[in-house]
Specification:
This protein is of the alpha+beta class and 117 residues long. The chain contains 3 helices and 4 strands, in the order H-E-E-E-H-E-H. Helix 2 runs parallel beside helix 3. The longest helix has 19 residues.
């Protein structure tokens, strides 16, 4: 029987999380994409804490433009925050989403701002 969209996404998310985890030196950049918003977090999985976060709902991010442009701004914002906090390398976790569209835009924005993954 064919998997539903959410079951497939959950299966991919578990497969990614088996091999990718965040440490204090190299935190995990986790992406969550809803229908209207996009969120990014830096997570230390050893301690189980969120170090930094940025989203399209933040006041500092201009919500004018299409969703991909806003995702790129979120990527730049999380990269600036992480570089200021001393994290320049991260492990990218796309959260079961395809590396396409808004997820790719966020990753490109973070790379342009100086984050390495």
């Amino acid at each position: 029987m064919k998997l539903s969209k959410t079951q497939r996404k959950y299966r991919i998310r578990r497969r990614i999380r088996k091999v990718s985890s965040g440490t204090a030196e190299r935190p995990r950049l986790s992406i969550f994409r809803s229908n209207s918003e996009i969120y990014a977090q830096l997570i230390d999985d050893v301690k189980g804490i969120t170090l930094l976060a940025a989203s399209s709902r933040d006041k500092a991010i201009d919500s004018k433009g299409n969703k991909s442009e806003i995702a790129k701004l979120v990527g730049k914002a999380i990269a600036e925050k992480s570089l200021k906090a001393g994290y320049d390398k991260v492990a990218f976790d796309r959260g079961g989403n395809l590396y396409h569209g808004r997820v790719k835009s966020l990753a490109d924005g973070a790379r342009e701002a100086g984050l390495k993954f």
